[in-house]
Specification:
alpha/beta; Rossmann fold; Coagulation Factor XIII, Chain A, domain 1; 3 domains; five-stranded mixed sheet; 9 helices
Length: 428
Amino acid sequence: MEPVIKVENLGKKYTIRHEHPERYVALRDVMAQKAKKLFSFPARLRTQASATTDYEDFWALKGLNFEIQQGDRVGIIGRNGAGKSTLLKILSRITEPTTGSITLNGRVASLLEVGTGFHPELTGRENIYLNGAILGMSRMEIRRKFDEIVDFSGVEKFLDTPVKRYSSGMYVRLAFAVAAHLEPEILVVDEVLAVGDAEFQKKCLGKMEDVSTNEGRTVLFVSHNMNAINQLCKYGIFLQNGMIKMYDKINIVTNHYLSANYKIKNEQIWDVDKMPGNSIVKLESIRVIGKNLISKDVYLISEEIGIEIKYHVKKDDHVLWLGCNLHNADGVNIFDTHNVSSEYYTKPHTVGVYQSIVWIPKNLISEGTFIIGVAIFNHEENIIHLHEKEIVFFDVIEDHNSLTARGRSVDIFPGVIRPLLHWEIKRC
């Protein structure tokens, strides 16, 4: 099958101008310069002026090669400055590439920033027809979709008001409704949806999934919200310094991206003189371990995962509560757990070194990157001895050789937990 988008050796170069600051100029210098100008040629003056300016080539994109098939939903992720918006502008034919070529088989509707494609002096109604005409649609085609666009956007009251008087949220609502409903083959959406409220974002994600699944259109989506990216997209492109670091299934790409951005490891061991804590208790180490007590950073869904905490108790007769917090890379809190089932939840510690391990059951949490925080405290006494946030992390991946809650499903399996629950089915 011929791809909808084919990119070959794509590059975009910008020339950056650096102005060197002038030194302090005294009155005598100004008078001397005025006198020199009387005897200087214009060409020489131009040469002197240009000597204080340097130019540098900056490649926002370099050597990109990829293909996208019809109906694919592709998330483009990367840190600020990675080249995401530049790529979308080139695909939308707003910016020309410096090198390489792009083949697009179909009309492209873009929503790159608030106000893109709208004329501020025209009303909402007029801009709907203007955008449709830009996409190459007839007036009859636009009229057929008009009521759907207005209903989706929710700006019916202000339809005959110039859009320059719209709030940013209203602007985005109408712009997305137009881009999604005027039947482009390729829909390109940048981070602009972050302007809308949560309900509208959910509505937009549902619409993009619908036009891809039911109408066979291709969606390119840029966002820093990994939850939204994972929810919508099937595939992902990870851009780094203007180059493609990875192009694969979306969960693989987002996990790699998040792991690369977290500087923490699967274990943290402190030197004696740097252990967190106070005069009562100090933290020696935190490790993520398997059943063999060996620390690693990737676990199968079907594996038990241990969180090992070693700590030094410096004074007798203190009741110390241990707590762990687990959240995913989107910042969603999966659970907190305290040592309520341990005898030491009520029993005072004596001086010594202790090891505590809490086990996360197999087939409980889903695929993804997870981050652990640890605290030692006692809320009854209103004391927090130490609290280390986002201190270690681990990845969970699917186990294709064991029975998991995914079963034979091959698509993205939603949810931050994935328990393997017991089902009973009988014929009545």
